[in-house]
Every structure is written in C-alpha cells, then in structure tokens.
Amino acid sequence: MFDHSGVPDENPDGSPDENPDGSPDENPDGSPDEWPDRLGRRARTGRPFPYSFTPCSLTSSARAAAGEDVRAMTDDELLERLAQMESARRALDAASAHLAAELDARSVTDRRYGTRTKEYLAAQFNLDPRVAGRLLRAGRALRRLPVADAALVDGAVTFEHVVVLSNVINPRVAHVVEGAQLELVQLAGVLRFDPWARQCRALVDLADADGGHRPSRDERRLSLGWTLDGVLNISGALVGSDAVAFEQLIEIHANRLFRRDVEDRRQSSDSVLSTRTQLRADALVDLLRLGAAGVASGSGSAPAVEATVLIPVDHPALAGNGSSGSSLPAGSGFLADGDLDLLLCDPVVRALVVDSLGVPLDLGRAVRFATPDQRRALAARDGGCVFPGCGVGHSWTDAHHVVRVADGGFTDLANLALLCRHHHGVVHRNDWHMEHVGGQRFTFTTPRGAVLDSQRHGRLRADSS
User: Fold this and answer.
1) How far apart are CA 30 and CA 92, in angstroms?
2) Exposed e or buried b for every residue in 399-409, given b needs 16+ CB within 10 A?
C-alpha cells in the first residue's frame, strides 16, 4: 500500500528501510534534505533502490487496480487511491526512462535491429515518436541528475519536471543544472509546474546568456584514410544547414534500406538485418552513386562506376575463380568474395592487367555491358530489382549478368536481370546462387538451400508459393 508521499510504508518483505549498520532509516519517506545521503548509502550498499521487483506481480497489480469498482469507493478512498496511482506512475516513469537510456547507451536496438532507440520505441510500442523521444531524453538526463532521479522515484516530482530538465540541460550548462538539482527539486515542491519550468529556463538562460559556441562553416572538414587491412576510414564535421541536410538525407535513405532489409528477412530467413551504422554507411554510398549518375547523365539514370582497376596477372578473377578475397594495389583496398565481380558488372570499368612488379601487360577492352536500348528493354521487362520483395525502381538498378562473362555468359536480355546495388551484392556472396528457370525468369538459392522466385514489376509468378 502506498501513502501520499509515494514511498511504500515498508519494504516488500515487511522490514523497514535500514542503514548499513542495521539501524532503521530515520527518514523512510525520503525528504529532499535526505536525498544526497540516501543516494550515497544506496551506492555504498549496492542497492540502487530498497525495493524488490518482479514484472509479473507489477503487471498483475496494475491490472487488478484497473479492474477495481471505483463506483463502490467512498470519496476518501477515491482521493487516496488516485494519489497512490500517481505515485506508482512516477516510479514506473523513472523505471521506463532508466531502461530506455540503458538500451541506448548499449546501442542494443542498433546492433540487433539496425534502428535507433527512439525509432525502436516508437515502432515496438506504437508510440508517438515525440513521446518516445521525450522518454529517451529524460532517461539520459536522469543518468546525470541522481537527485532528480531519486525525487522522481520517490514521487516528489513528475515525469514532466524531468522532461523540462532534459530539455534545458546541454554540455555548456550541464554543471550548473547538476549543481542546482537539489534546489530545483525542492522548488518543485512549493511552486506550480508552469512557474517552476520558467525558473529552470531562466537559470539556464542566465548561465548560457550567449547561447554557447556557434560553429562557423569554416569548421567543415572531411578526412579519408586507408588502413593497412584495406578499410577506408572516414571522419569529418559539418555545420549549419549542411549538417541538417546531410543527417536528414542519410537517415531517410537508411530508413528505406531498413525497410528493404525487413522485406528481405520476410522472404528468406537467411537474410541478415543490417545495424543502423551499417545502414547509414550503405545510404551514404548509395546517395553518392546516385548523385554522381545524375550529374554525369543529366538525369536519374542508373549509376555507373567509371574506373580503371589494376588486376595482378595471377588474380583469381582472370581465371574465372573468385573463391577467395584478393588484395589489389595500394589505394584500392581489399576485394573480398564477389567484390570484383560486382565492380565489373558496372557499365564502364577498364581492366588493366599488371605483372608482379606493377608493369602493365594488357589494357583490356572497356567492359561495356548493357546498352541503353537493352536497359530500356530490361526496365520494361523487370520493372525494377527482380529480387523478391524489393521495391527499388529500374533507374536505381544494375544490369547483372546471371552467367558471368568470365564463365561464358553473353550480354543479352536472357542473361541479364535488374538488381539493386544491395541485392546485386547479395548474389555475389559465397553460397548464394542465381540461375535461369525459363521465360527470362530466375531463382535465387540461399546458403541454407531455400529457393526464392524472382519478381517482375514487384509481383511474383502466379504459381510461386
């Protein structure tokens, strides 16, 4: 049973709060004056809060409370019960904020589902994204404001008070808010919410009168560097509208790629969901390729790499064998399984064969695959990426040789299929296979042996299961 202060009359086992020496806590209700001492004692004893918790009992108790016949209660019982519910709700708000902030700190939803914590909360629990954002910001703030955290758990302040603190705290004034949190919590006990919120904002405005540092465009930068193991590291900084536009474009396209991954997973359990950081990297490359294609052609036509690839004379690709990753000359990075095949599928790639000393032996013909007429025919036939469930249109696809040129494949419609850059990479992975099945249709076989039918204009064959 909760009293109006929001703290249980006793612990779940029936024992009163105790100090580390075993003596009863002189202030079990937790007045603001005692919060710093209580927090220190909890830290020393390893008990963040002196109550036990089981999810099942919590849910059962909440449902039982919701099922009570309020019409049978007296006026005093209604008032008392409403105060108890409000106190419990504040503690639950604190618990939810703790969980959300910890998920975010560990990047759990990014690692598992490729989505940011806020987006996960909104989608998983069907929340308004703004509500999910407030919960996450509040959780982050509580990690820096232990006194405010204890006050919310004890019911002395509301979740809305914490939201105000989370909105005003920033790196420039964090030390001010942290130092004043006890006074702000005490002030919340004597002021109504609106004037209290104004006092908080006034405090921050006073401490941050200049609005902090405003970065100039001169601070923009971008650095590229290859590591010894063939990884290109990218670091940089953008400011102002460039930063906002960059973030929005990357996140919007990353969301598209995430939906594509989800659809792939629905089609085949062999498909792996990319992390959010991986999706952002893919989005950056996609947008750069699409932008380059638009500049070169004056339209949004299919992106193409125009490059000269230095291929050592003993490279497996020259023998039609791409079974192992191969390192190319400095600055080219490392081509893993299928990477060279994928690169050579682009419309304009010139192969320069060199010996072990880097001396050119033969400048191969320009590998020009699908002509504009063939691409128009493929667009009319396939409509877009033929991988089942993919929604990428034909202008964003590559013309893929189902049977590689190195294996005797021809550049004709029967041997070409439109694949988006992502699924083009998929079919070049080890243990993935794509083959003709007649009628200029194709199948994809996953590493686990599942067979997926290709689609046309977003539709599978009528006889596909």
Assistant:
1) 18
2) bbbbebbbeee
